[in-house]
Amino acid sequence: MNISSSLHELCWCLPSVCSWEEGIAHSEFLMQHHYNSPEPVPSVTDMAVLPDDWGLDFVIAGFAKCGTTQLVEALRQHPEVSISRHEHRFLDNAAYVKMQDEVAAQLACAKLAARFGRLDGIGEQLSSEAGGGPAVSFEISVTSSGGSRQLAERVAMLCFDKLKDGEAKAKVESFRAVLHGHCKAVGGKDVPDDSEAWKKCRVTLKHSSPLCSFTFQPDGKGAPTQFQTTVGAVGGNVIEAERIARICYTKFESGASKEQVLDLRSSLYAKAMENAAKRQKVLLKGK
């Protein structure tokens, strides 16, 4: 087995004969040994004892050695793989604070990847170096996010941005509750979990008029098309604005013109407001 390591780098390894389950168990063994766990998981392969000075940040089975950006992309493509629960050791190091904001947020959201493809219904811990202070523990509930792992990741990233900007934890918890309400209030189907739209359509809350914008350019050829949805157009529902943007993105992928997508957006806006009005009536009736 060829195992590579370097301080502040991600080291992934797997014998070709291993299954995913065996590989994940093997990587857990490596991590537990490295951090001197009293009860290491038995190795599923013939594995030599790791030297104490290896300085590993990650050992995740299934891939060659790679950097942070490749890690984020690989985790999105393989939800059955999880980062070790010792991941916070990487988030605390000097390399982490130098990352670009978007990559840093995505890396934190990688904590939502669950073992063997399962996501804990009560949430996973999200760590942030908020305001340069100590790490903040934060939980995102998948159930409260409408039961969707993808929506839970979006809530996690939006909350992470608030924590990273130095927002008080209590305020971010209130913001999380609002987002959970938005998740449950969305009206209609969403795009498939593996759609490129999940990466392309992300709301910008720091804008004076919060919006979700994207640029569509089929196969990287031709003139790019700018498009956006606004949070205000759907009654302030951040999650709904992103959902509509994703649907519009996939409409572009199907070959529709901008005029056709604009018509679709208008109909989705109207439907979203109609659903919001119905939901409000139900809430008022219950009081």
Kindly name the structural category: mainly alpha
Distance between the termini: 64 Å
From the spread of the alpha carbons, the general shape counts as: globular
Please report which band the strand proportion falls in: under 5%, 5-15%, 15-25%, 25-35%, 35-45% or over 45%.
5-15%
Taking the sheet with the most strands, its summary is: 3 strands, antiparallel
Number of helices: 10
CA radius of gyration: 21 Å
List unreliable stretches of 5+ residues: 1-58, 83-133
Number of strands: 7
Q: How helix-rich are the residues, as a percent range? A: 40-55%
User: Secondary-structure element order, as H and E?
Assistant: EHEHHHHEEHHHEEEHH
Number of domains: 3
- Average per-residue pLDDT, rounded, comes to 66
Order of adjacent strands in the largest pleated sheet: 5-6-7
Description:
It is a single chain. The chain is mainly alpha-helical and 287 residues long. It folds into three domains: 1-66, no CATH class; 82-185, no CATH class; 187-287, no CATH class. The chain is 43% helix and 10% strand. It is built from ten helices and seven strands. It has helices at 20-34, 68-77, 88-91, 94-97, 101-109, 149-164, 169-185, 197-200, 238-253, 258-285, and strands at residues 10-11, 58-59, 124-128, 136-140, 202-204, 211-216, 225-230. The chain is globular. The protein starts with 9 loop residues before the first strand and ends with a helix. The model is unreliable at 1-58 and 83-133 (pLDDT under 50).
